[in-house]
Fold:
Amino acid sequence: MRAAGEIRAGVGAPRTASAFIAGIQGGVQVLRSTGSVEDLEAVLDTLIGYLRGPGSTGAAC
Structure:
């Protein structure tokens, strides 16, 4: 993905993977208690934006 320009250089894979897992777990817990996917979508958009770098708006929809 880095070679294809889909993620920015310098992203540490192990740490970023841990952040995705923790964010997804937290988002799912909130989803289970509220019935809303809003928090899960927010964490995924934020982390995908981090992967893409400054100026990114998050996930492409």
In short: DSSP finds two helices and no strands in the chain. The mean pLDDT is 87. The helical segments are 13-34, 38-52.
